[in-house]
Predict the structure.
Amino acid sequence: MKTSLGHFARRPLSLTFRLTLFISIMAIAAFSVFSWVTIRSVEQHFEEQDINQLQELSATLSRFLGDNNLPEATRIEKVTNAVSQQVNAYLYLENQRHQRLFQSPGGPDFQQIIKQNPTNAVHALTWSEERAQPQSHSGDDSGHEPQSAGYRVMSLPIPTVINGQATHYRMVIALSINFHLHYIQELTRSLSVAALLICLIIVLIVRIAVYQGHAPLRRVSKTIKSITSDNLDVRLQPNEVPIELQQLVVSFNSMIERIEDVFKRQSNFSADIAHEIRTPITNLATQTQIALSQNRSAEDYQEVLYSNLEEYERMAKMVSDMLFLAQADNHLLIPESEIIDLNVEIGKVFEYFEAWAEEKGVTLCLVGNAAPIKGDVLMLRRVINNLLSNAVRYTPQGKCVIVTLSQIVGGVNMSFANPGLDISAEHLPRLFDRFYRVDQSRQRKGEGSGIGLAIVKSIIEAHRGKVTVTSNSGVTEFTVSMPQ
């Protein structure tokens, strides 16, 4: 149970969930950035608007307070009237001796503002404070002052002359920005609600879009699921799937082709080996029945036993060859490493086949030379034996089998060429299959077990070499490439 839970915990997230999550996060992030930029833009616009209003009002009030031709009381009266006509504007005015000359009712705590900003430099700042009770002010369209009141404040000195003496005023102007703050709060709240709804809609739309986008993948999966050993000829169409799945479809078709080829070879192999074994068994049974049908002499029985012995030896060789190929299939074929002179080994095989070649009227020729290589001498001698016997078997009378040795980069080539009927191109890759038959003109007639070329390929691949075959212009040539 722990293993199952551990495996489940390590299971990767589905593509649908990943895409939905990723696209949703990107869309939500984009909308969040857009909302932040919108709110920041509105705040900046209100800030610029408030500062412009403060600058215009301060310029007007500074002109009144700086008029040296008017008495101080008249200046303050003009300033008071000007401020009273402004919506959401509050004024605090003091002289050089920090004596309060005027303060608008209902404004912020100017003493705290002055305390925290004691300099007379001209500057604008944002001031907020908590209110214990709601107040009513003409600057709030709703008729109720929020608990948290916000102001845009400008503090500046006003130089002037009173009674012939140079002095200055300190003027603090506060502009209520509660309306702006309320608008920004409502905008933020509206955008938050909209963001929540849009996020839900985005997740739903992305989920549907991803599900629809995966439809080709589901169709491919359904087709793959329907493939069994009975319909391995089914192929997916690369031009009917999105471009992202084309390589997957091509790879799958290639894999199915290989599997189909293995199944066909396995099926043909079973039929061929049954046929190969049935022939000697039938011969043994027939000869034994004939021998038992009537009394015969000792010489007759001896002849039957010799004939049966040939069939037994043929089956024993076939079984030995099959065991050899089984070792190769399971990577148990490990060749020994010793120095081999291919010229010498081919000469020995020539001597062995010389009598048979003369009987068939075929000449054996060795051309070229090659440096020694490392390998298993018995295995490579078997390769030479199989390829040479195959060449002699299909060479017409009076012709020559040519074995050529040549040096190549990093190794040697050994080719066996024999004249005869051409083999069609579609059959060439299958010649190394076990028991594969091209046609009746190239079919075995009891001389071999039908797996000689398969053994050749296994041995050469065990030596990290390669064997190929060509057939054209009346010449069939097997070429073995071996590393040095």
Observations:
- The two ends are 55 Å apart (CA to CA).
